[in-house]
Structure prediction request, 1428 residues.
Amino acid sequence: MRPSKRRPDQLRSVQITRHYTRHAEGSVLIECGDTRIICTASVDEKVPLFLRGKGQGWLTAEYGMLPRSTNERMQREAAKGKQSGRTMEIQRLIGRALRSVMDLTKLGERTIQVDCDVIQADGGTRTASITGAFVAVHDAIGTLLRKQAIEATPITGHVAAVSVGVYEGVPMLDLDYLEDSRCDTDMNIVMTDDLGLVEMQGTAEGMPFSRNDLDMMLDLAQQGIRELIAAQKNALNR
Amino acid sequence: MRPSKRRPDQLRSVQITRHYTRHAEGSVLIECGDTRIICTASVDEKVPLFLRGKGQGWLTAEYGMLPRSTNERMQREAAKGKQSGRTMEIQRLIGRALRSVMDLTKLGERTIQVDCDVIQADGGTRTASITGAFVAVHDAIGTLLRKQAIEATPITGHVAAVSVGVYEGVPMLDLDYLEDSRCDTDMNIVMTDDLGLVEMQGTAEGMPFSRNDLDMMLDLAQQGIRELIAAQKNALNR
Amino acid sequence: MRPSKRRPDQLRSVQITRHYTRHAEGSVLIECGDTRIICTASVDEKVPLFLRGKGQGWLTAEYGMLPRSTNERMQREAAKGKQSGRTMEIQRLIGRALRSVMDLTKLGERTIQVDCDVIQADGGTRTASITGAFVAVHDAIGTLLRKQAIEATPITGHVAAVSVGVYEGVPMLDLDYLEDSRCDTDMNIVMTDDLGLVEMQGTAEGMPFSRNDLDMMLDLAQQGIRELIAAQKNALNR
Amino acid sequence: MRPSKRRPDQLRSVQITRHYTRHAEGSVLIECGDTRIICTASVDEKVPLFLRGKGQGWLTAEYGMLPRSTNERMQREAAKGKQSGRTMEIQRLIGRALRSVMDLTKLGERTIQVDCDVIQADGGTRTASITGAFVAVHDAIGTLLRKQAIEATPITGHVAAVSVGVYEGVPMLDLDYLEDSRCDTDMNIVMTDDLGLVEMQGTAEGMPFSRNDLDMMLDLAQQGIRELIAAQKNALNR
Amino acid sequence: MRPSKRRPDQLRSVQITRHYTRHAEGSVLIECGDTRIICTASVDEKVPLFLRGKGQGWLTAEYGMLPRSTNERMQREAAKGKQSGRTMEIQRLIGRALRSVMDLTKLGERTIQVDCDVIQADGGTRTASITGAFVAVHDAIGTLLRKQAIEATPITGHVAAVSVGVYEGVPMLDLDYLEDSRCDTDMNIVMTDDLGLVEMQGTAEGMPFSRNDLDMMLDLAQQGIRELIAAQKNALNR
Amino acid sequence: MRPSKRRPDQLRSVQITRHYTRHAEGSVLIECGDTRIICTASVDEKVPLFLRGKGQGWLTAEYGMLPRSTNERMQREAAKGKQSGRTMEIQRLIGRALRSVMDLTKLGERTIQVDCDVIQADGGTRTASITGAFVAVHDAIGTLLRKQAIEATPITGHVAAVSVGVYEGVPMLDLDYLEDSRCDTDMNIVMTDDLGLVEMQGTAEGMPFSRNDLDMMLDLAQQGIRELIAAQKNALNR
Prediction:
């Protein structure tokens, strides 16, 4: 049995709260078990230099953790004066994942700036960031549509992410911190609503994993993504 | 009448939620109107170099704003690679204010690290940080007392802070963002529960202010601080 | 009796030397007792981005200390690669204080860049910087008037600053380093020549201070500011 | 047909030159087609702080590109003052991949510091870095064994890496720059000599990829890794 | 006898390999004994701000060492986040030396960006960088001439550099690392092909040197420069 | 005739004021014509890591310019967050020059930290820094001798520095800013009182210089150094 007492294929409970803060065009609190992240999507009426004049938009993401979102207080990155490699890796992943369901030519010359800030961490912050940020982006696009700043939505489908892993030889879905820190393999999967693979990043922390392990993990991920996209749709319909 | 429709001497509604996040020894969400700040107090079992071996503790504070806590998205300080002068000024103020009610010799050689992170900003973030952080520190000290790491509380009294200002010639209590950006004088007052002055920082944004204005602002501040300390006590008794 | 042997209401001797260095439009050496600061005002024929095209000017200030201006050598901020929080706080204060007596719409689209560099420190460097920099700005404006770059002076009055404190229970004017490091309360007051309050920043280092202490400190400050503005006028008439 | 005229399952020609530079304990030039990388392994007789006193060793990696290793000159990271997110991501990957075949308890309290510096880039620099660095590490360990600094090798197997992708709908092995920049999916696979998966990082640049695509890519990768490990063994036997 | 067994006036063997890497307009590997440096010259179709619109070009240089190009691994400057004073000093020297034989008005509004990256160091890296970079610049200019981007070559002559020193009282040419670290005086000389002096930088590491020592060192340098320029010409004729 | 109306072999007037500021163990204002520099020498009772436990001392130097010491205001290096290549080059030169007349084994395990801060610049700031800093170091050593912290002076002789150049074909001594910016060759010479050469750094800004030019420049430098060392001795005898 896993430390969290969940079944191997059991997701943590997910809550997606829209309009969580007041200023952003899209603002979502996502809670996956004890992991809590504020995801905002801000509209910036310009594009980065490399896209200027090309008639298309951009989406980019930043990620941060409150210093005491974790069990041991981490040093504040703003005070240290630089973002860690882990932070950079995660924010690049979030950006790529969200762009995979955006037709940026329909956005016009503007940028959707996503911010994912972890209030409380219990594993899976990068995947929850993607799942939550999709809803925030959806709301920001909704604002643009209502203002008639764009004619059609650039969003081409849903995208969500979940972690899977091999814990004591058994493939498992949606690892919390304790499970993650003890597992042999840790993999993050990003999928669209038609179950196309957008990103997969797997690391064998201890033993290498086999292609059979991989298949079982992908089965679990597929099921988890389906539930997470259902939760996104649910939240967007409220 | 002021933009917020409040009376000149009327504080915004204050909510202090303890145990807001799970990991920190003290964790508080303070809400003053639309201003929402997470204040955590973490215990670090060492002191900075300049105090090592002196048999006393230390308390220090850091402050940050989520990029989209404000109306316009601000650049993330971690991404920019440095904290602004404003951030540094505020975190130094929070640290001094909280140390004013701490007998650090009773803390032992450990540091209370305070983090104030603004989730949503509507004026008065530095004063709300102080008011909320006091409660988080109180809870962190409580943890140390329960673990018998210290014998007696180092806390010597309550401390809270509030802003006052002169808006269209009339002194007013607890300015929100709109009031703050239009007022002539903006002053932040930090006081203890016996109404001793700990910090005062006043700036004439437009016209200089007179000693008479100052007196009226101090009267308002005194009343506001009383109410805020009552809210702190209330929260600590729950 | 105070360590400096001065009476509680006695300012240190003040010397203001204009045209101290050759290149700047305004260049002043101010000496307050053993505190010696070079204040220069440079004219830059452009404004920061946020003011471009608005038909008004700007004034900004920077502050630094020579590494061995103090008793213990401080690390050079340029070598460390960042300015301390204290430095940032002081230079923001100097800028605000000087802007309080400038009608920036009369300056045209140019910036007055003030630099205050402490050659020797003995307490009160931020207040002496303000008092000295005012004269440097006055000279820089004089250059612009003589060149007919502007038609009328943007300067609307004098501004000067002084510290006050409570030392062993007695309010005192213009603390030197020794007095400052032992006092209970330390307050910096910035006033105009009609004794309007522009900035006040008070900190209780030990015991909180009362409103009665505050009143006595303000009386002292008022008297000190009057003498400092007389010294400015004296220097400007030479 | 692919731009490089290779068959879909055809690796670029691989050259591994040992003892390429004189100072490092292990120094390898790896050439995969036009991609050329110097990989060195240096022995440092201490471990990072977090491992001090734990009786085990560490392996860490850094990665860089000469500014004109690419078609367009890139800004020198040392001059810019920071490493890009891409650089950090790659060097973290190289370190994890190499540690997967190291029993660090057999290394003693020392660190193997790997440096991978790209002299000329034509796609696949991160995977070639891993393949080449393994040989450099092997040589550095050889030095320690010959000096009898360690008793048994900490190396538990071979590790190598290769890229695979989907180019115009067809899965392909070992993409060069041109192929990489036009392909729909780009995946980097790290495997051991018993074909255990150590890392997989796949990104759909255009269309999401299916599990069937993934299977075909893994088949290709498996074959490529076999050939690369044969090349490593070949080089180590010379 | 000197540690390297060479005669006092004997240069190390020099190899200049053109077209060493594929992307740069000029790319040279220079080997002086065990010192090996990749020198590239890249053409950038713009000039720095201070030259914009002046109808002339610019040439600038950067210098770096691979972390393990030296006997002890050096910290990577990109990871440290800043270039050392030594690095800055060397790259400024390389730029000045190369500009001394360039008529920048004939280059048009473009910049030649030189990069000198030390693959293996054994003394004399800054002088070998200059000698090698000249050839790379020559090739980059050749590219511009062939493309008819410029009409006439901006190159006005050859430039090369060599070190001389006083080792155990005897002036010697072209010091390797061992000789350099033990010598009393270390001097770098940059000369044109008509033996005009462009740069000389001499440092007495131990005893000061006399004008007689200086004369003997200059005689040696003159001879060395002649041989190095012959090697440049040789390489350019191949 | 030269712009400054001086004869080719005429030094600017030199003033060396000791005890210029109060806190440093040695504090000197040196004025060479309009160039004015504060040179302080501070005693630090420890040595850098690389010398710890070796029973010898160290001397190091830092250099800075006040932002408006020059005709155009320069950006403050502390605000920019890094020192320029020029600054680093100069402070390394000052350190080497002063160490050339120090027997560091007689200093004990302490560091002399030299700071040269340019108050007003008119050419020759690096050479004046060396000449002035020698006197400050002499005073700091005097303090150590008086306190009997050391038994014998580590100072082995005088050191001073001067610039020479070729201006319109004529070698000249001690260039001011105007002369320096128009001259063909600019050379800085550091010599001891027995006229041993410690450093020479010459750059042909326009035409290369000949060995004959060099000889004439060295004759001028020799004479200038003699006068500067006489001024140092004079100041030290007052």
